[in-house]
Design goal:
This protein has 640 residues and is an alpha+beta fold. It is built from 19 helices and 27 strands. Helix 11 crosses helix 18 and helix 16 runs antiparallel to helix 17. Keywords: Signal.
Amino acid sequence: MDAANLMHVETLTRQCFFHFAICLRSTAILVATCLAAVSTFAAEPQHGYSYFSDLKYPSDMPHFDYVNPNAPQGGSTSMGIVGTFNSFNHLSDKGVVGAYVGGAMMYDSLMRTAEDQHGTYYALLADSILVADDLSWVQYTLREGAYWHDGVPITMEDILWTFDLYKNRASYGLRSSYRPIDRVEQTGPRSFRFIFGDDVEKTRHLVSQTATFTPMPKHYWETRDHTVTMVEPPLGSGPYRIIDIDPGRSYTLKRVPDYWGNDLNVNRGYYNFDRIEVMHFFDKNVMLQALKAGVFDYYRDQNESDVATAYEIEAKRRGLLKKETYQMGNAYGMHYGLVLNMRRPLFQDIRVREALTLAYNFEWQNRVYWYGGMERNHSHFARSGMQARGLPSDEEMALLAPFRNQVPSRVFTHPIEFEPNDAFGRNRDAMMQADKLLKEAGWVVRDQQRVRVDTGERMRFDIIIGYIDHERMMTPYVDSLRRLGIDVSLRRVENNLMVNRLRTYDYDTTMRKIYTFALPYPNRMRFQLTSRYADQPNMQNYSGLKDPVIDFLVEQVAGAATQHDMDIAGRALDRVLRWQFHIIPDGHPVGRHLVYWDRIGHPPLGGEYMNWTGFPHIWWFDAEKDARVKQGLAALEEEE
């Protein structure tokens, strides 16, 4: 680093200030935080951006290493999804939006995420990116020759109009995501600059967030109401458009033959199918039967029991139907957990929450239902550098020590791992601990019913679920709770009703998938974990967390200057979350399971960073395999 930059770093470091304030009784406590390092970015446009490291690929790369650049183009495929849809408008808070609507299949973002490097993006709709030395702004140049599906060019007017829409008029989630960006300014004929607010902490993630900015066509939306559900396929810019809609049941993504980005190196090996049918099923069992009958091609099964038992059919034994498992990426997060809604008075006592956690016998469930295919979730950031292990390190203690009187003492004295239960018994020791905690919280047993010691009020709550898999999983847990004298109802609700109840937090407890944070996505973390969004509808803070310590640690993760700093802050956050008992953790799979008919192909999957299966984006149709599958199925029919 030259002298000028060194002086710049020293100046910025001296200017770091105590920026986090929380209320403890009537006294404001200031917590000092300081950037561990301040990076200076080259003051020249780049073809990509990396969160923590140098770019792997040069601007003239032929293609990403993880794709098949020679994949055949053409053919069709199909996939199954449990649930329904009633809208193609992803800009609204209303309705259940179809899969892939609003994503990369239909719209181009400014940059594409690389799947083989942590937090790295390469120019797509943008031609280049320029980042301010102090991270106060990000500038892009719009690529020449990009146009919407109706042939109208994508212009600066679309960029400016879309930003105003996202920031001021779109769904609450979009408005919240763009709140840190103060404005967008046009800086040249095809260049524009995102400028972050003066009161916003400047982080690398804000830069990454702008990379995923996806323009909408102004000329299309300005004559339509973006706040309502819409079954009309919207106008896009990406490689596919929607056709053949059967409302609530299916629709087809058709490849756009003259898609403007066909020849870009970042798209080589992508988008090989001519047609992709997305089939929705109300019932998973019906869907599985349809898959095994060859009605559709692909399904990513997340039920370990079905993976172990449901596909042992003759077509699989003959190699026509494939079942594969891959370790994807380096992070699983919490995966699934039973959320306790702390907006309800019953769950505001941490002793009650801990007791309910103790009553859940994961080991029994894993043996009986999941055939040993799951691992217990001990962490919100399982299999990542942010997963806490053992006791806090000195660096973690430096973050946690100021809050010693505000967090459970076990944050400092106990590892976060759960004690294993008896996989073959009734979990007697844990149930006795649960009973003791409930009594300490004022809930005693009278006439085999758990009641308040002072009022006689019965302890009762509902568990709402959306899938039959969860119903089977929760039934033995409900039995355990009833043995504790608790009146529990398990209710399975229809998909649309579940969506609406989640949006308004209208539940006692519910099974939810808690998403992975392979990188610190601050907005997602804030939506899920911080006080600001606990009472905002249509967010993901399902348990109603309102904890200033968690708020502080989320910001430490979000503002980390290095991977190391992010991991340390993440581990500290992991510990505080664990001892809050706001979620009863289930497990995460030992791998990700793909079931598909062997008429489609894929490149090698998995690796350190790739955290998805790549379907359908980087898969392809294989005509020779398709002929073999058809021949094999015909032979099976004759044998019957």
